[in-house]
Amino acid sequence: MTQYFVEKDLKPSFENGLIPKLLYICNVDDTYTRLPRTMHMHDDVMEIIFIKEGNGLHMIGDRHYKTRKGDILIYNTGVLHDEYANTDTKMSVFCCGVTDVKLTGLPRNHLVSKEHSYVLHSGEYARDIESLLEIMYSQISEEKHGAEEMCSYLIRALITLILQIPQENFMLSESEESVLSSNIKSYIDEYYLEDLTLDCLSKRFHISSYHLVHVFKRSTGFSPIQYIIRRRIGEAQSLLINTNDSITKIAGRVGYDNISYFTTLFSKTVGMPPKKYRQLWTEK
Description:
42% of the residues lie in helices and 19% in strands. The chain is of the alpha+beta class. The chain folds into 2 domains: 21-163, Jelly Rolls (Sandwich); 176-282, Homeodomain-like (Arc Repressor Mutant, subunit A, Orthogonal Bundle). The strands form 2 sheets. Strands 1-8-3-6-9 form a 5-stranded antiparallel sheet. It has a 4-stranded antiparallel sheet with strand order 2-7-4-5. The chain is globular. Residues 182-280 form the HTH araC/xylS-type domain.
């Protein structure tokens, strides 16, 4: 038997006396992942996604990733993300929402900086990460006595373990074209609920509609109009899941006065009408 001693004093990873708090945890199979979860972000919540099986395409911030089994996806608070699974691979994931995370040198509820990749390859850490998530999920889903306290310790262990994984640098291009695309995207993200058209965007940035579409699509993978639709539908998905508002009211909140047109766009983007989508997520 070999005995090892803890030789160093504890130096907490978390600042300001904050203790990370687990808000929710989901074990999501392909019944749900096969449906695109279009562009959305979270206020005051950071999400950690662990891909158990399958692969997909994810947009996080300004970056596009081909994701696969064993990947850890970090959605910092306030960072836009778009999720699209490869339906042939039956993607399944653990997803947990966390708040009160404060690491040295990073904003609150940020686990990685914008200079690093938002996707980490778990490699040798995969088994331990999945085990921690499985324990937390069983504790919460089975409403076991002391589950909240246990998960308080386990979520800290999970974050500390993730911080041990080497992070890849992500160098951003500062070309004139990338700056222009970033400015267009920021403008759309601020005003996507308003009546934006290609004409008003081209006037705002003093370029032709053709050039604007070309620059924006090369950077994001979407035309400006496609991007606006996905932002609106993503917001509608969040409202369908998290509120009791009527579908008509939600349509109006995301910029569509015509409920039929909204339903058509939603069905085309997500793969089912809004009423069925709400039932899928809220009836269990």
